[in-house]
Amino acid sequence: MAMAQSNYFSIKLTRFLMKIIGFWTVYTRKEKLMLREATYTATTAIPLLIATVKAITFTVRKPEITWLLERSQKYFWYKKYNASEKKIMDKLNKKSMLYMGSYTFFIYGTAVVYTVYPLFANIGRTGEDRILPFHFRLFKVPATRTPYYEIIFGVEVMSALHSGICFCCFDNLLCVLTLHVGGQFKILQNRLETIFGNFSERKSFETYEEFKECIIYHHLLITYVEKLECVFSFPLMFQLLMSSIVLCLSGFQLTMASEELVKKYLFLSYAISGIVQVYMITRICDDIMEESSSIGNAIYNCSWERTSYIMFNKFRKDMITVMIRTKYPCYLTAAKFFPISLKSFTNVMSTTASYFTLLQTMDG
Predict the structure, then answer these.
(1) What are phi and psi of 332, to 5 degrees?
(2) What are the transmembrane regions (predicted)?
(3) For labelling, which of 32, 176, 205, 267 has a CA lying 20 to 30 Å from the CA of 43?
């Protein structure tokens, strides 16, 4: 039943603005349909907006990305490793494939379901009632008539598949770079822990030089993370913010699509890919914090007590300096507001649940 309308302009304006963004209680069937249509459109448009923001940011930050790729090729990817370090890199590669493979699978699964959905929905339909993957209105173009329908359908399918590439390629790059810098912190820990493995006082100079190389490499890794922060800081903040909204809207659409099974699969794929994406981002950022802060423990566990206090006094002071530095771990932030970790994943899920509950309450 429709509620009485207020005659006060301030209330009308507030109600109008809140309805535009979808946060107003609906009463009539028309208003409910408008709410569901608005959330459906937002669910489709927001991922495209995210990909656009990332593309613009990466265009602006192209010099920093070039620096990151050059350092990755020189110090991470094409470097010769010993047996223990190679095991770390092999394990890292498997982890990267797991994250990137599962994430890309669900993202492309969503794009494929978008293209398959109208094929099933159009069974038994001919002419004017046929639907497209995305709503199309352009002046007086008869989008449901042949050959316009087939041409527009093909363009929308190619656009959906290309949008899937644009959406996941930036996150896959972040995953590769972040996991590898975390792996380099792990390799550095291994080098520091074994720096006194074949120690003898006759090799004190060589040992100290090796430690200095580790310090230089540690500084390189810190600089590398700072460059990552410079490039990905704003996109990560925008991604986490929008992910809460997308997960909420996809969950809301999933509960609304009670009669269309393919549509349920569409929004189920949306929800799963969104959860996988947020988990992957927060997990790899958490790995950087964990591995960079473990450098101090590796130095402490390097059997320094076997050395002479007089001969290695300066050595020990340098070790303490590095340990003090590692009390402040490297991390990536969301536009400098907060460091991203697994705690951010729980915060996003909590926010999503709150938005979802609010939408269901408004829908009645």
Answers:
(1) -105, 145
(2) 97-117, 231-252
(3) 176
Q: Give bridge partners of residue 339 from the DSSP assignment.
A: 333
- At 2 the pLDDT is 46
State how far the Cα of 248 lies from the Cα of 229, in Å rounded to an integer.
Answer: 28
Using 50 as the pLDDT threshold, list the residues of the chain that sit under it: 1-4
How is residue 234 written in tokens? 């704003």
Nearest CA-CA partner of 47 in 177, 170, 179, 151: 170
- What pLDDT does residue 200 have? 59
State which amino acid sits at residue 149: Y
Residue 267 to residues 15, 40, 263, 272, 302: CA-CA distances in angstroms?
29, 10, 6, 9, 52
SS3 333: strand
What is the 8-class DSSP label of residue 127? G
Q: Which tokens sit at 3? A: 């509620």
Say how far apart CA 276 and CA 278 lie, in whole Å: 6
Contact 329, 295 (CB under 8 A): no
Look at residue 84 in the predicted model and tell me its pLDDT. Answer: 86
Contact at 8 Å (CB) between 241 and 340? no
289-320: b (≥16 Cβ within 10 Å) or e: bbbbbbbbebbeebeeeebeeeebeebeebbe
Q: How many CA atoms lie within 13 A of 73 on its CB side?
A: 5
3-state secondary structure of 301: coil
Q: Which of 59, 178, 165, 179 is nearest to 112 (CA)?
A: 165
Sorted by sequence, the CB contacts under 8 Å of residue 179 that are 6+ apart come out as 92, 95, 96, 99, 284, 287
- Six-digit token pair at 357? 């509950």
Q: How does DSSP assign 75-100, residue by residue?
A: IIIS----HHHHHHHHHHHHHHHHHH
Segments making up each domain of the chain, as ranges: 28-79+169-363
How far apart are the C-alpha atoms of 143 and 216, rounded to whole Å?
62
DSSP letter (8 states) at residue 203 = G
Bridge partners, residue 333, by sequence: 339
Q: What is the pLDDT of residue 159?
A: 81
Q: Are 202 and 307 in contact (CB under 8 A)?
A: no
